[in-house]
Amino acid sequence: MNPRALLLPGPAALLALFFGVRLGLSPLKHYDLFFHLAGGRYVLEHGFSRVDPFSVTGTAGWVPHEWGFGVLSALLLKGLGAAGPALLTGALVAANVLLLWAALGRAVPRRGLVALGVLGLILVVQSPTWSQERPFHLGHLLFTLAVLGTQAWRAGNERVLWFAPLLGVAWANLHGSWLLGPALLGATAVAHALEAPEQRPRAVRALIASLAMVLVAALSPSGPGIWLYPLRHSVLPSTQNINEWVPLDLAVGWSWAYLALVGAALFCVGQAPVRRLAVLLPALGLGLAAFKVQRHAPFAAVLVALALLEHAAPGRGLAWPELLRRPARALDEAFARWSASAHGALWPALALVLLAGVSWQRPVPVEQGLLRSRFPLACFEALRKLPPGKVLNRFTLGGAISYFAGTDYKVFIDSRNDPFPQPIHDDYTRILWSEPGWEESLARYDPDYLLWDQENPGNLLLDQLRLRGGWREEARDGPYVLWVRHAPASR
User: How far is CA 135 from the centre of its chain?
Assistant: First the structure.
């Protein structure tokens, strides 16, 4: 490769540079990050535990299936301060952009304006997760690696199958989307066998590799239980109330980008003289699943985009209107030449390394590096000075309480969701909305402290407790208050 091409930034390198630096410099803002940090710190200090160390209500057991992200974030926090998790997010998004561009390059002979537009639509679908310091980014990146491996296998590379189990075991310990890897490879192998019966032995070897990806997932704290965990989690009633697990929501803008990809792909597949089942079958399966559960859309968008490009390249589906054909062709040619002659992935890498070096020299404490308006730090600090006890808390704050106050302060609930049996979720709803039976739900938990917000509907519980008495305010921070019980709860 021409050394000049390594220095000249291509379109994907510029996007990776922009998003990587912007996210790397962002304050920490997502509530879920803090239960991952609390979990990672606990694993580093105590090892794994099937008993939930953060609550007394999590009787379904702690399933640290994304422990790798928590440990990595906790270690980065120690070395780089608050910038650690932010830089991790920026690096994962930047790497995913570069790998997506490489995957698109394998699907189409030349990466012109159409490829750029397709990449843009994928990024729009994935962009809502960018502001969230969550293991979702690892899931996106590992899925793109699985796509690249599957493309290499389709092109005749058999050695890539040896890496499938390694990818599978890493994925199973980093993000809950691990099952998509073997599903992608297995569906591609089945479709390839149908397309080319003479290559069925190759397809059988790929199916064995996909089965190995499933089996090695048991090399995790959950053991063989991880094989059924995605199914059990997806059918929990409490899961159905989580935004990312609901059907595709047309009220949010990114869903229209996904629909645009699906529509363009259907048009191109319909116009193509030859249809490639090996790319269509996985795209169809995951593409339809995304309509039922919008959490799958960021992954499905990649497969739908590849199906679009592989069928648009030889077809006539994306011809420009006559008036715009000549200038569009010239612009497309210029962009394709730029894409082919420039790489420049070095620049986002150098920028992130530079930011990491600055943070290493001058780490910022996590309390100073988060979005202050979201976290009642004064309440957390006041809670730490009180004797250990049980905290009745808002759902989103559970992880932050476990991180900032510690495991001596047992939360009622947090956004891990699955450790808490359905009766706990029902009790939380009753308490939150002061529904009939809320007093009994409160008495069952018998909290020592209350960390709650004063905004509707939080004010409902606060008003009820003021009337009953037995509580005093210990601290206040923005819309949040910390109350301490100084009299036995009414039975």
Answer: 5
| pTM of structure | 0.94
Residue carrying structure tokens 């009766």: 423
How many CA within 13 A on the CB side of residue 177? 24
Q: Which of 287, 285, 286, 297 is nearest to 243 (CA)?
A: 297
How far apart CA 154 and CA 182 sit, in angstroms, is 15
Whole-number Å distance between alpha carbons of 137 and 135: 5
Phi, psi of 311 (to 5 degrees): -100, -15
Least confident residue range of 18-32, 265-279, 287-301, 338-352: 338-352
Residues 176 and 224 reside in one and the same domain: yes
- pLDDT(491) > 50: no
Taking the CA of residue 189 as centre, how many other CA atoms within 13 Å lie in the half-sphere pointing to its CB? Answer: 21
User: At a CB cut-off of 8 Å and minimum separation 6, what does 89 contact?
Assistant: 23, 24, 26, 130, 132, 133, 137
* Total number of domains in the chain: 2
Rounded CA gap, 128 and 132, in Å?
8
In a domain, 51, yes or no: no
Q: Copy the structure tokens of residue 485.
A: 């019980």
Would you state the structure tokens that stand for residue 260, as one six-digit string? 């645009």
Longest CA pairwise span in the chain (Å): 81
Residue whose structure tokens are 């299936």? 65
Query: How many other CB atoms sit within 10 Å of the CB of residue 345?
Result: 21
Chain segment 433-474, per-residue pLDDT in tens: 999 999 999 999 999 999 999 999 999 999 999 999 999 999
170 in the same domain as 86: yes
Residues 414 and 471 in one domain: yes
**Residue 36, domain member (yes or no):** no
pLDDT at residue 343 in the model: 75
Whether the pLDDT of residue 323 is over 90: the answer is: no
Q: Are residues 258 and 132 in the same domain?
A: yes
Shared domain check, 238 and 174: yes
> What is the span of the domain harbouring residue 423?
372-485
Compute the CA torsion angle 181, 182, 186, 188 (nearest 10 deg).
10
Local structure of 278: helix, strand or coil: helix
Q: Are 344 and 10 in contact (CB under 8 A)?
A: yes
- Same domain? For 398 and 440 the reply is yes
Alpha carbon 77 to chain centroid distance? 19
Residues 241 and 292 both lie in one domain = yes
Among 375, 365, 368, 370, CA closest to 80: 365
Same domain, 178 and 288: yes
